[in-house]
Design a protein that fits this description.
It contains eleven helices and no strands. It has a single domain, classed as Heme Oxygenase, Chain A (Up-down Bundle). It is mainly alpha-helical.
Amino acid sequence: MSTVTRAPSRTQHHRTIKRELTETAHPVWVEEMIGRLRPDWTGVLESPLFQNTIQGPMPVESWRKVVREFFGVVEGFPKYMGVYLGRTTFGKRPGDLLARDWLIGNIRTEALHAQWFIDWGIGLGVTYEEMVSYKPGPEVGALQEYLWSMAYRGSLAEAFAAVNYAIEGTTGEWTRLVMPAFRDHFGDDKYSLMWLVEHAEYDDAHPREALELIKITTRDEEERQLVEDATRRSLQLFRRGFDSCVAGV
C-alpha cells in the first residue's frame, strides 16, 4: 500500500524553505563572479545621491524624484517574481521546486513594500496620485524594461540575479548608508521610515537566498556567464537611475 507524503503547514513549510537556503560556501565560479561584479556593485553605492545625503544637507528634492521615478520598480517587484514563478516546475528540473516555493512565500511580502514606499513618498511631500501616475524618465524606464525582460525571457537563474540579487542586494546596502540622515529628517515618523527600515535592517535574507537559488538553478558554464551579465546590467542601470535623480546632474 503506497503512502502519500503530505507537505507541512504553510508556516512550517516556509521555515523549511528558509532553512534549505541557509548560506553555503560559494563555489569557485561564484566567488570569481562576485569579484568581477564588485566595481558595478560598489558603483551603485557611490552614486552622488547617497554621498550628498550622508554629507548633508538632505537633498529632499532629489529624493522626491527618487520616489516618483522608482515607484514602478517597487510596485512591479511581485509582478516580476510572478512571471518567473509561472515558469517553474514541480520538481522536474533541479532547484525548481525550491525556487517555486521561495517565490510563492516572498511575493506576498513584496506586495506590502509598495504601500510602505508610498508612505515614504508622502512623508517627503509627494502625493499618492503623483507616484501612481508618474511615467519614469529614460534611465529608470530602461531599468524597468530590463527587469521585465529578464522575468519573461531570462532563465530562472538570470531572473534571480537581475531582480532579487542585484536590486535587493544593493538596496540593503544603500538604505543602510542613508538611514541615519532619514532618521534625523523624519524623527519619530515610523510610517515614513518603514520602507527604509525594512530594507536597511530586516531584508538582508532575500539577496542571500537569491544567490543560493542562483547556485542551485544555474545549469552550466554558459549560463554562469549569462547570470553574471544579467547582474552587471541590472547594477549599471540601477546606478544610472539614481544619478538621473540628482539635482543639477
